[in-house]
Amino acid sequence: MNIALAKTDTRREPGDIFASVRDRLPGTGKVAEVRQQAFEAYARAGLPHRRLEDWKYTDLRALMREVLPLAAAPDSSALERAKAALASLAAVDAHRLVLVDGVIAPALSDLNALEAGVHVRTLREILEDNSNNARADLLENGAASGAMIALNAAMATDGVVITVANGTVLAKPIHIVHVATRSSAATYTRSFLKLGQAAHATLVESFVAAGDAKSYQTNDAVTVWLGDDANLQHVRLMADSADATNLTTVIFTIGAKARLATFNMTSGGGLSRYQGYLTFAGEGAEVSVNGVNLLNGRQHADTTLFLDHAVPHCASREVFRAVVDDRAHSVFQGRIIVQPKAQKTDAKMMTRALLLSDEAEADNKPELEIFADDVTCGHGATTGALDESLLFYLRARGLSEKEAQALLIQAFVGEAIESIASDALREVAIATAQRWLEVRG
Amino acid sequence: MTALLEVRDLQVRVEDREILHGLSLTVNEGEVHAIMGPNGSGKSTLSHVIAGKPGYEVTGGEILFRGEDLLEMAPDERAAKGVFLAFQYPVEIPGVITMNFLRTAYNAQRKARGESELMAPEFLKKVREVAKNLNIPQDMLKRGVNVGFSGGEKKRNEILQMALFEPSLCILDEMDSGLDIDALRVAADGVNALRSPGRAMVVITHYQRLLNYIIPDFVHVMSKGKVVKSGGKELALELEASGYTQFEDAA
């Protein structure tokens, strides 16, 4: 007898996560159409898995398993909890823009006290503005592709859309804070920063959990344009709860002679992927991309960068450090593409992982695709334990084993943290690393 | 009176090879002992085992420090108790600023002894004073530990630490290696300034030359993992004249 086995899978039907909430998602008409198409693209592909080369080390089907239902919009209790979480955030003197469970919280944000030359709108208000014919463009993904960014486009509930006028030099950083207050729910945010010609700005992003929020999923997308001669310092600190999932896509388009220094520190989240797409759009630009992963327990953190030298005479530097303890797993994939016409490209990438336990794992995958002949490109990757001879020297001078390790780990990540130009922000990154080391005991 | 350092019949293996075969040595407060011997006689092994370097297996004998079992202590405990090893090859530690390292180590030792930690300004003043006496420029203190230092600078950095931590037992492992005569003199002057009735030194060296600058009270000759002859400072001169070969058979 033939028995057709019924699918005993108890997981939600993938279509439900969109269909059941589409009325709550901002925007109608063209926006709704783009969302529908984006969701279909996601549904066709499903969660990325190890057979896709770019997701080889981060198999979301195995690690994430399912997409959780959309988080409820924050109520007054959620906002109270978010406010408490903000109080414990490192003090950064900045213009603060707070997204609670994927929705901008005006009462917690400095929307109206910005400097001259800066304009901020929420994603929601633009998507709902039917007179704006370009509104659906905000759901386009630019250089990024894949199922998870498609899902973000389909489900995005809110975000901030910031423009900085030509020549404006901001005195204070802009600080986007993502606070999760709901457990076992998903949020989708999408933000934009457009820096005009010769504009100077600092963008800080923090991801935190309020109270005991756990097992939530965050899917964020940030698109940044740097105009010619613009200058951007970008510092992102991901400190989500230890069993949360954070999938973030950043897309940078860099104008001629612009300067971009971007730094990411992942110390939180049980499962995370930080994928960056950087494209040089004008000659003479310089970019430094830096990152630190501080992982323990069973954390899995993936940093995947695509750097497109599409034009000549640009320079890029990538410095990545991972400290991996217990059974944690760090992934770094760095692809540098030098297009045929991108002569005089100067690209260097260095990734180093420090394994603190026998079961810790680090995967480094540098990829150089060079199609121009007059370029300087280099990459290096190392993985290893702390140097025994250095540890002994420090212990012979009176440092305990943990103190000696902490000092060497700080020095190790310091090489990436040094890239942060702002003293205050560098101190915040150093303090985050110190806290991580203290918790380690 | 309890000796400061008492090494009794020490036997040490590294992997499958026995390096020290029953070495004994007694050092009292205020004394300066020189340990001489050819390469491979086990001089550096002795210094490493006293400091607690991993990788050595003590298969017999004991080391007492003021009557306490030193081998039971972690390297940092030994440091806090007053044992200091000046390394033959001080390591470079990129990213760890010398001044920060000195303060962390100094306060770790004080904390382990139940003493209060020294605040930054107070400590800074102390370091500057000591550094000045050793001809160590201030900018060296702002660099990574030993990073880009010359051989002489590295040795002076060791002596700087010795002066700061004020240990009661200093073991100088081949302090003269890699130093020209001028650098050697500066280093030796630094060491001599630290001689005191409460402090003992064990000077390990292959060459007699160093002992022209740091004049020992006792000289021991090591060969094949044992002390084969002990005597006064004149023994060093005797060795200089006749070499180590006369002791090869004695071992």
What is the helix fraction of residues of chain A, given as a range?
Answer: 10-25%
| Class computed from helices, strands and strand pairing of chain B | alpha/beta
Biggest sheet features of chain A? 10 strands, mixed
What is the total domain count of chain A?
Answer: 1
Radius of gyration of chain B: 18 Å
Strand content of chain A: 35-45%
Residue windows where pLDDT falls under 50 for at least 5 positions of chain A: 1-10
Shape of chain A: globular
Distance between the termini of chain A: 61 Å
Number of helices of chain B: 9
Largest interface, Cβ cutoff 8 Å = A-B, 23 and 29 residues
Cα shape of chain B = globular
Write out the CATH superfamily name of chain B: P-loop containing nucleotide triphosphate hydrolases
Please describe the biggest sheet of chain B, giving its number of strands, its sense, and whether it closes into a barrel: 6 strands, mixed
Instruction: Please list the strands of the largest sheet of chain A in the order they lie side by side.
Output: 2-1-5-7-9-11-13-15-17-19
Strand tally of chain A is 19
What does this structure look like?
- The complex is a heterodimer of chains A (441) and B (251).
- By secondary structure, chain A is α/β, with parallel strands linked by helices.
- Chain A has one domain.
- Helices cover 22% and strands 37% of the residues of chain A.
- Chain A is built from 9 helices and 19 strands.
- In chain A, the strands form 2 sheets. Chain A has a 10-stranded mixed beta sheet with strand order 2-1-5-7-9-11-13-15-17-19.
- In chain A, a hairpin with a 2-residue loop joins strand 1 (95-100) and strand 2.
- In chain A, helix 2 packs antiparallel against helix 6.
- Mean pLDDT of chain A is 94; it is low at 1-10.
- With 251 residues, chain B is α/β, with parallel strands linked by helices.
- Chain B has a single domain (5-248), classed as Rossmann fold (3-Layer(aba) Sandwich).
- Chain B is built from 9 helices and 12 strands.
- Chain B has helices spanning 43-51, 75-81, 98-112, 120-133, 138-141, 151-165, 181-193, 234-242, 245-248; strands at 5-14, 17-27, 32-36, 57-65, 68-69, 83-86, 93-97, 144-145, 169-173, 200-205, 218-223, 226-231.
- In chain B, the strands form 3 sheets. In chain B, strands 6-9-10-3-11-12 form a 6-stranded mixed beta sheet, sandwiched between helices.
- In chain B, strand 9, helix 7 and strand 10 form a beta-alpha-beta unit.
- The interface between A and B is medium-sized, with 23 and 29 residues.
